[in-house]
Amino acid sequence: MKTTKWLDVRTIAPATLAILLSGAACAQTSVTLYGVMDMNIEYVNNMSSTGATVPAGQAAHRVAMLSGGVGGSRWGLRGVEDLGRGLQAVFVLESGFTADDGKLANSGRLFGRQAFVGLDSDYGKLTFGRQYTSIFDVFANFQAAAYQPQYEPVVAFVGRFFREDNTVKYTGKFGPVSAVAHWSFGVDTASAATAGEVPGNFRSGSAWGGAASYVAGPFGLALGYDEVRPPAVAGAAPGKNQKASAAVKYSANDFQLMAGYRWGRNQNAADAQTLRDNYYWIGGTYTFTPALESTLAYYYDDVKQVTNPVNGAFLGNIKNPWQVLFVTKYALSKRTSFYLSTAYSKNASLNFDTSVGGLGTGYYLGAGKNSQFGAALGFRHLF
């Protein structure tokens, strides 16, 4: 009797898996899932009980659970595919969220932090999509608190549009020199007021900038410029928000010292100046042990002129705000740490929210108050 030989699935499965893995290895493609969970309990005094209102509400203290103390809570996907001859395809999709309630951050965008695709080579990286501005990227390494979202005046430094939609961006590294340049066709498509990409007006809602750093041994220097063109009013050219900055840093063993200056000016569609300020910062970080480090930083904003964003009234010269920040972090492992973060501001709320008008970081002084103190005890996990 003739017998039929059946293929053993135990033989097929390993062979098939080997073929699939061989194909993946040849393509050298990888996708990485990563993220941050950051939660804290915070105390703040002298807050307006009515939020961002003019006039301010009665002052009161607040105790709350918040997401994003030393780092914004997020999850993301990062992909790389080797195309051969030193060329790679890259992409990043990064979603911000508030871990205390599970909601999407960044105006409810699914990938509001970053969403871009591009090509990387020995000559640099060219990417397209929603990305950080050039000045934000380069100066991240020249801020003592590394853009801590809770108590560092990041928006006062770089402006509200430090992430921009519709952006073409070039990043290159040449020995000790790193250079970044970008152009946005429309900085914020989530808002009709700043969408850009207007037929017949190429500049309306657009933005551009560039920055470079030089780091050799313990010394570093950074220079940058950023410009945003708000949408044009009918019959007029768009206004412009300009920022130029320079910073230095010094690193020695377990200590880093950083200082910088940022010039800023905003003009409306009639070329009238609505904001003019000089922003300064200095700070340092000391690593006591591999697990324990502390950061101390000081920020000062010399506000020459500001217009109230709520009613357009000219405020003239105002008292210049300043802020001190102190952070201590203790690492339980490479991925998990505790932290204590504190800040005190004078002549403004924390992060200078009320001095230059409507920065939107959530701290607003109560009526009759000119200082604010905040402290947060938190926990951060990286994955």
Topology, please?
Elements: H1 9-27, E1 29-48, E2 59-67, E3 74-84, E4 87-98, E5 103-104, E6 114-121, E7 124-132, H2 134-139, H3 154-158, E8 163-174, E9 177-184, E10 207-216, E11 219-228, E12 240-252, E13 255-267, E14 273-289, E15 292-306, E16 322-331, E17 336-346, E18 371-382
Antiparallel strand pairs: 1-2, 1-3, 1-18, 3-4, 4-5, 4-6, 6-7, 7-8, 8-9, 9-10, 10-11, 11-12, 12-13, 13-14, 14-15, 15-16, 16-17, 17-18
Can you tell me about this structure?
By secondary structure, this protein is mostly beta strands. The chain has a domain at 31-217 and 318-382: Porin (Beta Barrel), CATH 2.40.160.10. The chain is built from 3 helices and 18 strands. The protein has helices spanning 9-27, 134-139, 154-158; strands at 29-48, 59-67, 74-84, 87-98, 103-104, 114-121, 124-132, 163-174, 177-184, 207-216, 219-228, 240-252, 255-267, 273-289, 292-306, 322-331, 336-346, 371-382. It has a 16-stranded antiparallel β-barrel.
